[in-house]
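call fold(seq) -> C-alpha cells
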Amino acid sequence: MGERFYRFSQWCVRWLFDVLGGLEVAGCGNVPGEGPLIVAANHASYFDPMLLGAAINRPLHFMARRTLFDIPGFGWLIRQNQAFPLERGGDSREALRGFGELLGQGHAVVVFPEGTRTRDGAIGDIRPGVGMLSERYSAPILPVYIWGTFQSLPRGRLVPRFHRFKALIGPPLRQETEEGYRKRKRQRLTDAFRSTIRALEREAWRDEQEVPPVSLLRLWSAAGGEGTA
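ret:
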C-alpha cells in the first residue's frame, strides 16, 4: 500500500483545503527531490501536518504521540501516512533514533521547532534542536511558513472555520562545510532558520486584511528582557 495510499490521502487533504477556502503554495521549486531533508515549520494547529503533506509533493514522515496510535482506525490511518510514534515526555534519545533512521534512509522528516502549537498565532520560541538534527545527520533544513491554520482550527476549537491557507517554502538551509565547533554550527543553523521563518511570516502577512499576531515573548525580548522568541 505504502506510497500509493499516501498519495491518495494527499489528494483527499488537498480537496479538503480547497473546500475550506483554498491552498496557495509558493516556493515548490525549493524542495530537494531526493536525499535526507528536515522540513521545519511553524506550529499553529492540528491542521499543520495535513497542510504540509498537501503542499509538498515529496512524501513526508511525521512524528506523533504514541497514544494516537491506540485510537481504533485513526492509529492505522496515521501509520499508513508515514507517522511514527513517540512517547510524550519520554526519552528524547528515542526520537533521535527515529529521526536518524529515517534521515539515514534519505527520507524527508517533519519537525516543529517551537515544540508545541502557538496560543496566539505568532511564532514562539525556536528551540535549538533543529540545528542539532541538521548538523548531526547532514540533512538540510527546509523552512516552511504555514498561514491560515490558526485562523481555521486554533487550540481549543473542534470544528474548523472556512479560511484561505498558504504554505511559503523557503530555500534549503545547509550546514557549513568548513571545520568548526559542532555547537557553533548547530547554533548558526538554528539562527538561520529563525531568521528565514520570520521573513516568510512577514511575506505571508503582506497585503492581508487581518492584523498579524505579535508574540508577547518577542516584544519582551525586544524591550531588553532575557530569552528569544
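The chain has eight helices and seven strands.
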